[in-house]
Write a structure and sequence with these properties.
Distance between the termini: 58 Å
Largest sheet: none
Number of strands: 0
Helix content: over 70%
Structural class: mainly alpha
Strand content: under 5%
Oligomer: single chain
């Protein structure tokens, strides 16, 4: 049961585009979890403990490969197939990725788990080992920062472009 839950989380880690990489990360996480099972203090928090191990494995992988932490893998679907619409979509995706990348790690984690992974506030709190109230306030603050930054990049872009 835990292996299946961990597998789902590994596959849904923000920025993990390849299923084989996610499977490798989950396998390494389970191996570490088994090897260090005596370090688990509270057996009710096994999910959060394994998620922390998985997150650390993911961060180490990114550091080794020197990749940017990407939370968006897919481009937005296009309703217009023209080059102009595709260009606008790519610009929007680039702006969103840029803004998400500038958020502090704690904010990226919460917004990724709630908005992209669709976890409940309670599950996010358990995974990050923080109270549910902290999840809600951090998410509110993160969304506010995100909207301000995305509006700022849009305004800057509009000012620079000649009309």
């Amino acid at each position: 049961m835990q292996l299946r839950v961990s597998g789902c989380i590994g596959w849904r880690l923000p920025g993990v585009a390849m299923k084989s990489l996610a499977d490798d990360l989950v396998q390494e996480t389970v191996a570490v979890g088994i090897a260090k099972r005596k370090q688990l203090r509270d057996h009710n928090k096994v999910f959060a403990w394994l998620y922390t191990i998985l997150s650390n494995k993911w961060r180490r992988y990114l550091q080794q490969k020197k990749l940017l932490y990407d939370t968006l893998d897919d481009q937005l679907p296009s309703h217009d197939f023209g080059p102009s619409a595709q260009c606008q979509e790519l610009e929007l995706v680039a702006r969103v990725r840029h803004v998400v990348a500038t958020l502090p790690m704690k904010e990226r984690q919460v917004i990724s788990l709630v908005d992209l992974e669709e976890l409940t506030y309670c599950d996010v709190g358990k995974a990050l080992d923080i109270p549910i109230g902290t999840v809600m306030s951090r998410l509110h603050r993160t969304r506010k920062h995100f909207m301000a930054k995305i509006d700022c990049t849009t305004s800057t872009r509009l000012v620079r472009e000649p009309s």
